[in-house]
Write a structure and sequence with these properties.
It contains 18 helices and eleven strands. The chain is of the alpha/beta class. The protein folds into three domains: 150 residues, P-loop containing nucleotide triphosphate hydrolases (Rossmann fold); 97 residues, Winged helix-like DNA-binding domain superfamily/Winged helix DNA-binding domain (Arc Repressor Mutant, subunit A, Orthogonal Bundle); 74 residues, no CATH class.
Length: 427
Amino acid sequence: MKFYNREEEIVQIQRIKEKAYSDHSKLTVITGRRRIGKTSLIFNALRNERIIYFFVGRKSEADLCTGFCKEIENKLSLFVPQMNTFTEVFRFLMELGKNRKFTLVIDEFQEFENVNASIFSDIQNYWDQYRTSTNVNFIVSGSKEPLFGRADVMMKLNPFNTSVLKEILADYKPDYTCDELLALYTYTGGIPKYVELLADNAALTIPEMIGYICQSDSPFIDEGKNLLIGEFGKKYGNYFSIISAISSGINTQSEIEVFMGEKSIGGQLSKLETIYDVIRKTRPIFAKEGSQTVRYEVSDNFLRFWFRYIEHNRQMVELNNFQGLAELIMADYTTYSGKMLELYFKQKLQESHDFKMIDSWWEPKDNSNEIDIVAISLDDKHAYIAEVKRQRKNFKQLLFEGKIEYLKTKVLNKYSIRAECLTLEDM
């Protein structure tokens, strides 16, 4: 698949490189979940540039440094002495930066924590010493934010937006349907690598997508587990169970703690939300921060799908019953994609930049009294309300109007209101 999107990020990376070479060394930090395209972005933005590229794998520090020294020799065509600590390697490069201009990329930077945690402070110290007297375009990428406070540019990559998904489908399947667009959003969450796998394997109808996902050698089958082990390491078990619970509809802290055997999980929930960006809190729109009406949901749409269908049906996977798994996912597609359609429209509204708040609303003591989307305008004078249905024939106008009238008395009394039903046709 060709490279899509990221135009603003490319311009920013190229601009900071020029400043690093003309002024003094600059640090760019690029974060985002795995498979989001951080490395592809860097190499596309600097495709004509000489890049010293270090990938931090889970090896010994000495083993990593052997490879790093060879990379420096190859890219800069000079003799590099053997060095066994990354501190030595980094200092060597910063010394070179006094007389040479080059780009240094360290990928999966957070993995230094598993190699030698003191590397972080050593890099910070040498960066502070050499930054203003060198011309190194220093880029680090990973799933967390390292060296916070020292970066000249902080860049977080998000999944493809809805317009890019449409662009990709238009290129690879010009006759695509709205349901196929929804399925691509549902099964990939807009993650570039997953979209690429489906596009490159010509799997862009709904049965083709499900068929590709449900194969014995499909990269999707173990992706969720591999993703979480990569993030959490050997301690992934409790996090795994929490996400599994939320994905199955156990969505309040008290319910999750019961599911976990009465364990206290407040700290783990906080990390999953604020550090790993895998789950998020949801409250009725206008609910106060301390409100007890908090639900958790899996914010990563791919993991939401993976836990619900692949992990929850792990026994079918172990029995190599991939045909049965595909049939199960296909049979449930209409039901499952209804919720994903709501998330799609929320994202589309967010991408419009026309609103200051976008959320759902529900009565804390009556979950049946719920409205899918409530969005508040930038001037805080107008409210947009939407009910989301796959098909318009399932929309109940009088029931919707009654909910709106009730909502006016609760939280929307000062707003002028525009309301409608959104369906597949509006994607």
